[in-house]
Amino acid sequence: MKHKETHPNLDVEGCFGCRVSLVHTGVNSTTTRGAAVSQTEQKARGWDKDMPAYKRLRKQGYQPRGIDGSARLEATATSAAQIESRPDIEKLVARGVAE
């Protein structure tokens, strides 16, 4: 580094070159966020099934709570109330709270 010849310790106060010389960049920006990236990709893969199911439910006049899980909801729900208000109906049935 050429600036190190002028200021060997790179600690001269007020010197822009010394301040900038301490900035380093990484090679791969996703290295530290690998888990978050894989979760996002997995969620996006799920949308390949959920988006068309959500559109079909909306076209039939239902209002699901969201896009996520719409394919499972479309396959398992038996009433409009299940589609619009309780997307976790399978868990409730398993616990004996709902039919």
Outline the structure in words.
Helix 3 (34-59) crosses helix 4. The mean pLDDT is 78. The chain has helices at 3-6, 16-21, 34-59, 70-76, 80-84, 89-95. The radius of gyration is 27 Å and the shape is rod-shaped. It has 99 residues and is mainly α.
- What share of the residues does DSSP label as strand, in percent? under 5%
Assign a percent range to the helix content: 55-70%
Structural class: mainly alpha
Cα gyration radius (Å): 27 Å
Task: Please give the largest β-sheet.
Answer: none
Shape: rod-shaped
Distance between the termini: 72 Å
Order of helices and strands: HHHHHH
Task: Compute the number of helices.
Answer: 6
Low-confidence stretches: none
Mean pLDDT: 78
- What is the number of beta strands? 0
What attributes characterize this protein structure?
mainly alpha, rod-shaped
Give a nutshell description of this structure.
This protein has 99 residues and is an all-alpha fold.
Outline the secondary-structure elements.
Elements: H1 3-6, H2 16-21, H3 34-59, H4 70-76, H5 80-84, H6 89-95
